[in-house]
Amino acid sequence: MSKKEEQEVKIQFLTKITDWVMWWIGSIPSLIIHSIIFLTAFLLPVFGVVEVDKMLLVLTTVLSLEAIYLAIFIQMSVNRSQEHIDDIREDIEEIQDDIEEISEDIEEISEDIEEISVDIDDIQEDIEDIAEDEDEEDHNERARNVMLKSNVSSNKSDIRAMREVIASLQKQLEELKKEEEK
User: Fold this and answer.
1) Rounded-to-integer distance, Cα 181 and Cα 175, Å
2) Spatial separation of the C-alpha atoms in residues 55 and 130, rounded to whole Å
3) Pairing with 98, which of 1, 45, 106, 162 sits 20 to 30 Å away (CA)?
């Protein structure tokens, strides 16, 4: 294991310890234990075990040290929280960029579908014109024309379905944008 990996392991271990300490300090058992310690400290002079001055000196020193360590642990927690917030902020920015790209792609697809629809309408009109002009042709030619028309109709149905899918995607994008704004 390299020195960098060893440092990572040590840092993770210390982070777990500080997380546990912060959890414990904010728990009910910690409140109870601190209350018992303070009560005991103030009762010692009452029963003549220790002088009031010595008890106050020790208690003040212990509380000062505890406050220093708590401040350090709290700052470590705040720093980690800020790192998480920064990571989340970056993720949100990436998602917004992705949404903008998807929106642009959908607009391009929508424009392409409109162009295809116009082309299909033109082709269908041409086929109908040809069919009218060539009424006297044999049945095979008419059958081909019918098949072409059926393909055009099928393509139109497919395009309509794609339009519906695109409209649905656009609604979803708008909803995502609204959610991000909130």
Assistant:
1) 10
2) 110
3) 162
Confidence of residue 44 (pLDDT cuts 50, 70, 90): very high
User: Which residues are within 8 A (CB) of 113 and not within 5 positions of it... i.e. 6 or more apart?
Assistant: 159, 162, 163, 166
CA 152/CA 117 separation, integer angstroms? 10
Q: How far apart are CA 110 and CA 130, in angstroms?
A: 30
Mean pLDDT across 39-62: 94
CA 33 to chain centre: 41
**Of 9-13, 81-85, 134-138, which range is least confident?**
134-138
Taking CA atoms, 34 is separated from 26, 82, 97, in Å, by: 11, 30, 51
Here the tokens at position 45 are: 């002079």
